[in-house]
Amino acid sequence: xxxxxxxxxxxxxxxxxxxxxxxxxxxxxxxxxxxxxxxxxxxxxxxxxxxxxxxxxxxxxxxxxxxxxxxxxxxxxxxxxxxxxxxxxxxxxxxxxxxxxxxxxxxxxxxxxxxxxxxxxxxxxxxxxxxxxxxxxxxxxxxxxxxxxxxxxxxxxxxxxxxxxxxxxxxxxxxxxxxxxxxxxxxxxxxxxxxxxxxxxxxxxxxxxxxxxxxxxxxxxxxxxxxxxxxxxxxxxxxxxxxxxxxxxxxxxxxxxxxxxxxxxxxxxxxxxxxxxxxxxxxxxxxxxxxxxxxxxxxxxxxxxxxxxxxxxxxxxxxxxxxxxxxxxxx
Length: 331
Ligand code: SF4
Ligand code: SF4
Known about the structure:
By secondary structure, this protein is of the alpha/beta class. The protein has one domain: TIM Barrel. It contains 13 helices and eleven strands. It has helices at about 40-50, 70-80, 95-105, 115-125, 130-140, 160-170, 185-190, 195-210, 270-280, 280-290, 300, 305-315, 325-330; strands at about 10-15, 55-60, 85-90, 105-110, 145-150, 175-180, 215-220, 235, 245, 250-255, 260-265. Strands 8-7-6-5-4-3-2-1-9-10-11 form an eleven-stranded mixed beta sheet. A hairpin with a 4-residue loop joins β9 and β10. α1 (about 40-50) packs parallel to α2 and α6 runs parallel beside α8 (about 195-210). Residues about 1-5 have low confidence and may be disordered. The chain binds iron/sulfur cluster (2 copies). One iron/sulfur cluster binds near residues 240, 255 and 306.
């Protein structure tokens, strides 16, 4: 098989907005998708993804463990030879679903947004920290591989370095830091932190990553490549040209944090939808926007940074990342 679509390695699939929690930073919970992909269409889609050369499906929510079909999709993906991962808050894990996740070779991304009980419960709600610790012990018992996700906000940024030692202690494969994007609930709660606080926090996390020799990935801030950090700190590029972001209604989104659909897979095959996406004028504009930063030493990597943040903060996808210190200095 040949064609441009083979560059996509991963499907990031938001299955539903339903959740057992109501966190102030959630980018999904307050969004509404009226139509839902049916179970039958979803199972077909997994086959189409495999046929197109996609290697991995990352299922997200909401809370995926609340969705009855999640295990069916995981099983279908495994039978199709795809790698699978789940994003979960971990509070609904139990012996039964962990046994199934183990059988299905699932990698778990656990969102844990506080190293200490008080901070964690400010975000996740009272009474949940002890349950989280119980479930982490269960996870260890089943030897399911997992990583910690930590969304940096004004409520918890000072505990990010401590998450490195916790990650090591609990046996996580790595820690992923995600500076909060002003989308969804976060637009109302306004708890994102500014660019200079992100940089200072990541510097402290980098020192901890060195000290504990523990890998930390930082997502959605490719401008951080302007700085030097520990070898254990990995700054991720924007993955959008390698990932297909799918909404619960089957829309192919410009990015999972923004409700701008390029196409849909309710009535179109995944291949047709991706072709439609690639022919969309905005898709080509995104590919060209790095020209706005052509003098920057890291522009090949950063590609003008996060276009979702440019849209959410400035209303214009074409602008360079408004959190980049170089961009800020020029304005
Ligand atoms: S546009 Fe921004 S939020 Fe979306 S994947 Fe890229 S860096 Fe992440
Ligand atoms: S100037 Fe542009 S390419 Fe360079 S780091 Fe900032 S946003 Fe990225």
